[in-house]
Amino acid sequence: MVLSISGLGSQLALNLIDSTKDRQIENMRNEAVHKRAEADFRERIGSISSPEEFVKDYEVYSFVMRAFDLEDQIFGRGMMRKILESDPSDETSLVNRLTDSRFGEIHGALGFTTASGPQTPNFDSAFWVQGIVDRYYETVFVAENDAQNETVGTVLHFREKVGEVDSWYDVLKDRDLTQFFQVALGLPSEMSGLEVDMQKGILEGKFDLAKLADPAELERLESRYVAISDALNAQTTVSSAALSILQNSSISGQFVPITIDFSAINYAPSTLYR
Hints:
The structure is a single chain. With 274 residues, the chain is mostly helical. 62% of the residues lie in helices and 1% in strands. It is built from 13 helices and two strands, in the order H-H-H-H-H-H-H-E-E-H-H-H-H-H-H. The chain has a two-stranded antiparallel ribbon. Strand 1 (113-114) and strand 2 (117-118) form a beta hairpin. The radius of gyration is 22 Å and the shape is globular. The relative contact order is 0.09.
């Protein structure tokens, strides 16, 4: 169980996470539910030799799926088997037709099928096993914080994945990275409905990915994202509250006077760059 960040501003929550993350993850490792899941994975992963065996062992399968942030896809065991059996060298294979990068990552990590055909991976490697375990705790940590504050969760995901970004295609195949850059660069979410190459062109015109090598630029992007995202969320919250009050007053037949100060939130994202 991670620390509660409910009620905190996103930047304050991130500061708290930065100062306590190692301790929080260590506490997670000692929780009974995670210790049991890790023990089952370590005990049985070495005996699995095929995608069929993998999806049949629910505990091992679920642990690995959570490690790759695919908890929402755990129910689709039949589809996951087909993905893991896909030929990565065939552009028409299922794994290559899916735009979600998570499926390609788990396919590559498990290695049941390569360009040379079906394989029997060696899951006895202590280094490989530890890598999956560490990834599990990192992913669960991000997911639990995201459940409390989506802005914080997106920033944590950005930090985790930004080192793997070599092109805008790497961004556009990842939904959270796409959302991060759209908000941080002041672009509308509706642009996701455009063709990929058109989106890439728009993003290239707004930001040079070479700047991601500069830690100061990463910090500036984070700050912009947090400021704009919190402002947009505050506007949504106030609008929902006002609508709820008006609806309730119309039902009761009474007028309820309210005063809302919009001065702190009523600005366009573009003003952040002036």
